[in-house]
Design a protein that fits this description.
It is a single chain. By secondary structure, this protein is mainly alpha-helical. Helix content is about 70%, strand content about 0%. It contains eight helices and two strands; from the N terminus they run H-E-E-H-H-H-H-H-H-H. Helix 1 runs antiparallel to helix 2, helix 3 (about 55-85) runs antiparallel to helix 5 (about 100-120) and helix 6 (about 150-180) packs across helix 7 (about 185-205). It starts with a helix and ends in a 5-residue tail after the last helix. The model is unreliable at about 1-20 (pLDDT under 50).
Length: about 240
């Protein structure tokens, strides 16, 4: 279910015939958000199905962090929809004109930063989690996969890669709307940017304490709320 949900989301980003999508509709950003939530729900059920207490703890943490990071995801998508004046990924991804307003440019760059942080949280990377740790009591994402192997583990890993790539390419398209290049360049930018950001963060800092993760994630949500508010005020073109 996790892999299938992530694979279905890929159809929302496939453009044909002058950037017309193969499968898209107004408001499909909400569908993407809930498909991501469904994939998390399926992974939590899979972890609890093993009956392991360690995987149960990981599932509980995954549910908590997912609930805390979901406002940041929704407000980040809302900011993109507000600035691009459309709630469809096809229109958002084809929004390639340069932005003359430096304030909106900064807002879009902050949106890209928010989605990169969400990618770290959802992907179980430093500073929220460390995939290289071997202490079950402090593991979050990886502990939910301990009792799986073979094709089941492969599907979970592929689903995680697809989910990370979705967040990375959304962040890359937020940048592409600023620098005004075609959307095909967003995919290489997403791969390069995501890989570099993960490598730099994991090289420069350690994982947070578990007690600090909730505060860290809420800070990202608060930043996304501030960015949404600033974007809304800028789009109103209020003259003072």
């Amino acid at each position: 279910c996790v892999s299938l949900g992530a694979a279905l989301m890929a159809f929302l980003f496939i453009p044909i015939a002058d950037l017309e999508p193969l499968f898209s509709f107004h408001g499909d950003i909400i569908l993407v958000a809930y498909l991501l939530a469904f994939s998390r729900f399926a992974l939590i059920l899979a972890a609890m199905d093993t009956g392991s207490s360690f995987e149960g703890m990981g599932a509980a943490r995954e549910a908590l962090y997912g609930a805390l990071v979901e406002p940041a995801l929704m407000m980040g998508l809302a900011t993109l929809a507000l600035i691009c004046q459309d709630a469809s990924f096809a229109a958002i991804f084809s929004h390639g004109q340069g932005l003359d307003d430096i304030n909106l440019t900064i807002v879009l760059l902050l949106v890209a930063y928010i989605f990169v942080m969400i990618m770290f949280i959802e992907g179980g990377r430093v500073p929220v989690d460390d995939p290289k740790t071997h202490l079950e009591l402090t593991m979050i994402h990886e502990v939910m996969c301990l009792d799986y192997s073979g094709i089941d583990l492969a599907m979970i890993q592929v689903a995680g890669w697809l989910k990370n790539s979705i967040f990375a390419i959304i962040a890359a398209n937020a940048v592409s709307a600023v620098v005004c290049f075609h959307w095909e360049f967003a995919a290489p930018l997403a791969i390069l940017g995501a890989g570099l950001s993960v490598g730099v963060v994991e090289s420069l800092r350690a994982r947070n304490k578990l007690s600090r993760n909730a505060t860290y994630i809420l800070t990202i949500s608060a930043l996304s709320a501030l960015v949404l508010l600033v974007g809304f005020l800028l789009m109103q073109d209020i003259k003072i």
